[in-house]
Structure formats: structure tokens, C-alpha cells
Amino acid sequence: MVKIQSKKITKEYKKRTYRYTQHLMPFPLVRNEELEPFLKRQLKFKMDTKGDTLSVSLKKESEVKPAENT
Predict the structure, then answer these.
(1) Greatest Cα-to-Cα distance within the chain, rounded to the nearest angstrom
(2) Angstrom distance (rounded) from CA 56 to CA 38
């Protein structure tokens, strides 16, 4: 079971103050091995809601291989 955590962020930039909310969803420790290939990678994010169900999908972006000069 997980709980979505919210955190208020305040930043000052050029004499102005900006505020926004950041939402965090920690994953259970027993899933660390499954998460390892996704860490430090660009991921496509998709979120759907149906009734009382929230579905979050994260997908690795396809890696673009550089063209070979022949």
C-alpha cells in the first residue's frame, strides 16, 4: 500500500516568490529491484482515473540510436 504525499515548495527568483505543490509517491522497498532499470531515465507519464481508481503508467522512452556512417 502507498500514500501520495504532498509538499509545498517556495522559491524566490528575481525578487518574486513562486509557490507550487509537489506530489510524491514512494514505492515499497520490496520493489527496488524492479524499479532499478527505470531510475535516472526519461519516462513517459500517463495517468487515468476511473471512479475511485488512479492508474499511473511510466514507460521508458525508446532509445534513438545514432545513424552509422557507411
Answers:
(1) 55
(2) 14
pTM of the model: 0.63
Distance CA 26, CA 38 (A): 14
Contact between residue 45 and residue 55 where contact means Cβ atoms under 8 Å apart = no
* DSSP state at residue 38: G
Could you report the per-residue pLDDT of 47-69, keeping only the tens digit for each? Answer: 999 999 999 999 988 765 555 65
Residue of 22, 9, 64 lying closest to 42 (CA atoms): 64
Q: Where are the domains of the chain?
A: 5-60
CA distance 2 to 35: 15
Cβ atoms of 12 and 19 within 8 Å: the answer is: no
Amino acid at 17: T
